[in-house]
Design brief:
The structure is a homodimer. Chain A is an alpha/beta fold. Chain A is about 35% helix and about 20% strand. Chains A and B meet through helix 1, helix 2, helix 3, strand 3 and helix 4 of A and helix 1, helix 2, helix 3, strand 3 and helix 4 of B. Strand 3 of chain A pairs antiparallel with strand 3 of chain B.
């Protein structure tokens, strides 16, 4: 397998992007990434686009072909990948594999979602399709409900406190406030989090990500050609992609996602590193509790210590490992299909030393994307070169 | 690149599959394919599932992870691919590439769609998301409308007659009548086609495919191991995957789809054959006219002669090239995401000599899958070994 590098990244702002359709925002992120890489579009040989639910919330399917056509990519193969909220991470991984295996030399991987044109009820119903419809969601369970259950289980099993969980929101909103691409630009206090509207007990409004529009894109090429295109290319050290139980009732323990554990194991093995080597991570905080669970599943903190980690500042910008310096899904926003690529957008900028909330001396970064309540996960490990 | 073989295929019947959800039918097709290949599920290293619009018509997303979990595939990477009606062809191609490039030894590629639970209005609106929403579909164009325009253009440019177009339906319904997996099992006369209800002038009801549920699956492995698993393995000789204009107004000529032409060129080149070498083809007859256009784009008949080809019997079971011996989308049914894999299901059975409408002495077969009005296309060439 060939070494793969990232030579360009692009991202729209996240939020309510008025008057801009799904194709528009995907194209905008791709154009920014191509310009960042200084790669002419004629060189691009394949396009992968992660998108969860464009057919339902934006009336737009076949987004990969549409985007390739609008970008003028000359008839290249284009594939939409979908794995609920991990759609973007899967697109990126397929792009990396295409170059690693020698099939292509230049690949564009992107993610996009347009959610704010639909009503909140439509969004909630649409997001619920990431769960097993017949076996769980039809009974009325929602994603906030699922993570409410997971939160109660983590509190009961490990003594995690409501305050520790709320501090994830305080940390991420604080970081998002400084990120110009972030949907929320205002810090919140723990008191505000704990007094915000109850959504799914014990989770409150500020424990949840917003409904967002947004897109992000990444240009990939073989590592040995990367410096022709960018002065600070980033190495893809390893990737992982795994599946797991689709429903809470199939899980032996609802406080851990086997798909994350498997994908991380594969990515660490490929990269030849351990969790302790990672300096900065963008992980899938689709709820505050999800950050705590992921930080344990990825091996950054011992099982059950994810809540304490936030309280002690271990996951702060200057902590043991900086977690979600972009503001994470909770503050930056969560245009579902875009998230996997947007995490990599932030991490590439961290490794280049260009981030809004710059982590000092960072050399190794990890992106973690999760679909549903753990039905699928991807992990990507990046490094300076 | 390693040679790749198909060692097992499976398919549900197509039609209205009452009481069976999207995951159920995907799992059923996969189980049949695994049994056909006599491959234990533990050997499968990756799953690709083509599905267009499960999130909208079946309230079910993340179908690949859901299917992997339900099949007990042990946490392997699973990816849903979407390219409108070409979703299944893309899944198959990614599976083939995974083995050709040495990433995996055993891959399951499948396609599935559950459409009959939704209302006809919901299906029509859902299918319209395969077009460019902002640039075309929002104005009220539908897929039958698009192909009505294409039909008029073909008639005007080449003198193709309404009767020739209707004969596609007569041929395909006649073939579908003998196929036990087919949704329609009754021959129709030309008179019945021409008197059937007008849908989008000049296309009538029997020019259109039905709304269908169904799934199909394919097991792939390296060609040099294929005989361990099946006495009559089928070789994947070449594949192609390309994109093209997303809207009619962007096309220089609406009677040809550049994506089909490109994908075919790539597949013929990889296989080292020409169109004249193909004995049997399953092509994307999403409307009668689409069969005529595809038969020209794939190089079987000269430009403008597709109508005459049907009339002269060139595309009949015993013609120059047997076109859609399964009954095609029009008679067999068109569960959108399943179609690309269902075409290969038929062709593998043809090459094994097991088909309901068996083509005599067939050694080379071609599958053609089309998304939208040509935004994406895949071509797969198969041969005996």
């Amino acid at each position: 397998m060939r070494d793969v590098a990232i030579i360009g990244v692009g991202s729209t702002p996240f939020g309510k992007l008025e008057g801009r359709g799904l194709i528009d925002i995907a194209v905008a992120a791709c154009r920014e990434a191509l310009a960042d890489a200084r790669v002419p579009r004629e060189k691009i040989q394949a396009l992968y686009v992660g998108n969860f639910i464009g057919e339902r919330l934006a009336n737009q399917g076949a987004i990969a072909g549409m985007t390739a056509n609008r970008l003028g990519l000359g008839g290249i193969p284009a594939t939409k990948t979908e794995g609920a909220c991990a759609s973007g991470g899967i697109a990126l991984r397929l792009g990396v594999l295409g170059i690693a295996l020698g099939l292509y030399d230049f690949v564009l991987a992107a993610g996009a979602e347009k959610m704010t044109s639909a009503s909140t009820a439509e969004v909630t119903a649409g997001l619920a399709t990431a769960g097993d419809e017949e076996a769980e969601m039809r009974c009325g369970l929602t994603f906030p409900g699922s993570f409410g259950i997971i939160t109660r289980a983590h509190m009961a099993r490990y003594g995690t406190t409501r305050e520790q969980i709320g501090l994830v929101s305080v940390k991420n909103h604080g970081l998002g406030a400084a990120n110009p691409k972030s949907q929320f630009r205002k810090p919140v206090t723990l008191d505000e989090v704990l007094r915000s509207r109850l959504i799914a007990d014990p989770l409150r409004l500020f424990d949840c990500p917003p409904i967002s529009d947004g897109a992000a894109a990444v240009v990939l090429c073989p590592a040995d050609r990367a410096r022709e295109f960018h002065a600070k290319p980033v190495r893809v050290m390893g990737t992982g992609h795994a599946t797991g139980p689709a429903t809470l009732w199939e899980m032996d323990d609802v406080t851990t996602f086997p798909a994350t554990v498997r994908a991380a194991r594969e990515a660490y093995h490929a990269a030849g590193i351990a969790a302790a080597d990672v300096d900065v991570v963008e992980l899938h905080d689709c709820f505050t509790t999800a950050e705590i669970v992921a930080s344990e599943d990825l091996g950054f903190f011992p099982r059950g210590q994810g809540g304490r980690a936030v309280e002690e500042g271990w996951s702060a910008l200057d902590g043991k490992v900086a977690v979600n310096p972009s503001g994470g899904l909770i503050a930056k926003g969560h245009p579902v299909g875009a998230t996997g690529c947007a995490q990599v957008y932030e991490l590439v900028r961290q490794l280049r030393g260009e981030a809004a909330n710059q982590v000092r001396n960072c050399e190794i970064a990890l992106a973690h994307n999760l679909g549903g309540t753990g039905v699928v996960s991807t992990v990507t490990i990046l490094g300076t070169m």
